[in-house]
Amino acid sequence: MNRFLSNATNKIDAKGRVSVPAPFRNVLARLDIQELYAIQDFVYPAITIGGPDMLDRYEQQTGGGDLFSEEDADMSLLIHGGGVFMKLDGEGRLMVTDFIRDYTGITDQVTFVGRSDHFQLWEPVRYEDARRAALERRIARGRAGAGHGETG
Known about the structure:
two-stranded antiparallel sheet, cytoplasm, transcription regulation, repeat, DNA-binding
């Protein structure tokens, strides 16, 4: 499988490292991703992590426009000024830095969340709250559409 799926919560060790779940490490190995790009998510209190191709995709969103427009300037500020490169250590762990902690509220545990071609780091309670709210919205949309011949 070449997609990040599911979720797992792992404890942060005394040195501030957390083990990346084995299925996520397997995807990284299969895709030959050696260096990770991490950025603060634009919607959720989570850190989004992917390979260099993720940074390329973000840069394409600014490359075709006016470099002096507010929208392109904002995007560059966020993806270049707010992104960092990370690497797993030899044991498959990430360092949980202040960059991660300050944005997410993570303290002693990290929930890894698969998002297809990237994954996210969440504070466990915030993840569960966001997951539950997303499910409730999805169910409500399904119910609203059910009367009109649509499916969820």
